[in-house]
Amino acid sequence: MIDNPATNAITRNTSGHIISEGEFNRVKWNINTTAGTYVVPFGRGAAEYLPVTLTTASAVSPGSNGSLTFAMYGGNWLNTGYLPTGITNFVNNNGTNNSAQVIDRFWRIEPTNYSTKPALNNLIFTYRDPEWSVANNSIIESNLIAQRYNSTLNDWDDFMPGTVTTPASDISTVATLPSAQLFTWWTLVDNRTPLPIELVNFNAKCDGNKVTVTWQTTAEKNNNYFEVERSINGTNFQLVEKVFSQNSNSNALLSYQSVDNNSLDGKVYYRLKQVDINGNFTYSSVVVVTCSNALVSPIVNIFPNPAVSSITVDIKGLIGQKTILIYDVIGQEMTKRQITDDNENIQETFDVSTFAKATYIMRIDVDGHLHQIIKFVKN
Questions:
Q1: How many CB atoms are located within 10 Å of the residue 65 CB?
Q2: pTM for the full model?
Q3: Helix, strand, coil shares of the chain as percentages rounded to 5?
Q4: What backbone torsions phi and psi does residue 179 show, to the nearest 5 degrees?
Q5: Residue 75 has pLDDT above 90, yes or no
Q6: What is the C-alpha end-to-end distance of the chain, expressed in Å?
Q7: With 0-12 CB in 10 A as exposed, 13-18 as middle and 19+ as buried, what is 143?
Q8: What is the maximum alpha-carbon separation in the chain?
Q9: Mean of pLDDT over the chain
């Protein structure tokens, strides 16, 4: 514990550092409402210096005991094997374990005894190259962005701060962080596969020479608009239409639709880009449609949602051998069913009576390739 709010209460010489490397190996700094730039001189082993740097701005504490508690630790590529205590959500928008797209390190920045938490500027995370480049990871270093876990909502992406990563220095910098967005646990993730957004369904269907794209949200927080994007190869996407939010902050079920009047014959990939009011954005999973002449593309629905004892998936117009998987929110497979025939219209019911009350992800693969992801809630 450092009971001195001065920014130089810890001073590093030309070498040396504090080794945490565990979520409960903590440095508690009683900075109260002092504004200034603080450096926590963390490191690893004898020679690797991995400081955490931040500048505090406004804060309100009830007395003189407002503090920030710091810790950090790394592990192997499979982050779900050493998640911080209390984190139960670690899947990506494809409904699978996101460990391969997340750097192998977690940071603790925990505010306590504040009525208004500190706002931060220039929050800088320092990482090690092996923590993103290890063989089982699939990360482009320059794509790394910061995400923090909202323990109240059990959500990673209700707020995504703007992040600049500097590969030459192995640092990721969050320029500004409002006080309300300071929560305890942080990590860095490849922005191609951020931790999940709150879509309950996302469909695209062919109708003659056009494609209708529909989606629903269960919660929107500081949402500005969506961009519907399409691709012919699943990699390079172009804008189809911008659709503004019906309610930037809502806990109600909201339904949206966009029509692509210039769709192409053959296989076409669609995704959503959700853009917040502050410019931060996330991507949905990708859905695939195949349009030729006047063929109608598949429609997938699940019901009831929320479910109590069972959940049914109704699929129409989807040709090919199908595999249906259900995952929990940390990417653990709960059940798997393979449909061996090629019937394009099927209805499958799954017993979820023994599942805990939580959010789950249903993944539908066709001929070994992802077709669609749908979330559902078990009550």
A1: 12
A2: 0.60
A3: 5, 50, 45
A4: -60, -40
A5: yes
A6: 43
A7: middle
A8: 73
A9: 85
Tokens of 310: 């069972």
- Supply 333's token pair: 């497979």
DSSP assignment of 303-363 equals ESSSBSSEEEEEEES--S-EEEEEE-TTS-EEEEEEE-S--SSEEEEEE-TTS-SEEEEEE
CA distance 82 to 165: 24
The per-residue pLDDT for 368 is: 76
235 Cβ contact partners less than 8 Å away, ≥ 6 residues apart: none
- What is the identity of the amino acid at 161? P
Q: What is the mean pLDDT of residues 73-79?
A: 95
Burial of residue 180 (CB within 10 Å: 0-12, 13-18, 19+) is exposed
- What single-letter DSSP state applies at residue 86? T
Output the six-digit token pair for 287: 């859905």
Residue found under tokens 């078990």 = 378
| 56/122 Cα distance (integer angstroms) | 9
Cα–Cα distance, 325 to 35 (Å, whole number)? 50
Topology given in CATH for the domain delimited by 298-379: Immunoglobulin-like (2.60.40)
DSSP assignment string, 197-245: --EEEEEEEEETTEEEEEEEES-BSSEEEEEEEEESSSSS-EEEEEEE-
197-296 in CATH: which number?
Answer: 2.60.40.10
Q: How far apart are CA 105 and CA 190, in angstroms?
A: 13
Q: State yes or no: pLDDT of 29 exceeds 90.
A: yes
**Residue with structure tokens 């390079």?**
236
Q: CA 116, CA 179: separation in Å to the nearest integer?
A: 7
Q: Both tokens of residue 354?
A: 């023994």
Of 126, 221, 224, whose CA–CA distance to 178 is shortest? 221
- Average pLDDT, integer, range 317-332: 80
**Phi and psi, residue 131, nearest 5°:** -75, -15
Give the tokens for residue 254: 């909201």
Q: Is the CB of residue 258 less than 8 Å from the CB of residue 241? A: yes
- Eight-class DSSP state of 95: S
CA 183, CA 349: separation in Å to the nearest integer?
Answer: 39
